[in-house]
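Example 185, ligand heme C.
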Amino acid sequence: MAKKQDELTDHEYDGIQEFDNDLPPWWIYLFYLTIVFGIIYLLNYHVFKTAPSQEEEYRLEMAAAERQKAAFEAANAGSFVVAFSTEASDLEAGKGIYNANCLACHGANGEGGVGPNLTDNYYIHGNKIEDYVKVITYGVAEKGMIPWEKSLSKKQIIQVSSYIQSLYGTEPANAKEPQGDLYEQ
Ligand code: HEC
């Protein structure tokens, strides 16, 4: 068959005519390549399953992360324990943080106001350091307690928690009525 080069086809649309040339070789090879790729892909992932599917990859990665986490926790056991500080410098820093951020809702002496009284034995969210850190860090959006994770560092949160803890039992004037459950100290 003679190679058709620059031969006009017999149709014409709105004055536009078309040559009847062969497709360029690079285009045809690329097309064949996609077919070969498709076959290899199909055999690899769906017939012989020589490579893991997306779901299997996900499961494998999760399992690997699980193993890493277990190893990390085993290696660092005990080093994430937080505790109330009784250091004067921490309590002083905590007081500064409290007066700047918390006083408006919890009162100048922790007696409560918009927020609960922080000096009595009743707690809505618990009285362990972890409970304080959690409620201060994440807040209680629906009740109006602000999350502080963006504006206070972890250290500052522990300092202000320690300061609040130091206010326990101080019986300030105008104390707000108890809220939550009775907790042992
Ligand atoms: C805009 C008012 C507001 C500010 C500011 C605020 N709180 Fe609160 N806070 C609340 C309210 C309201 C609650 C009660 C949440 C609930 O009912 O679950 C609360 C609860 C708490 C609790 C839990 C008390 C319990 O009984 O379990 C702690 C601890 C606490 N706040 C500490 C802080 C600290 C520390 C700051 C400053 C860094 C702060 N709050 C600033 C309103 C505020």
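Summary: The pocket of heme C is lined by residues 101-102, 104-106, 114-116, 123-125, 132, 135-136, 140, 143-146, 148, 160, 164, 179-180 (CB under 6 Å).
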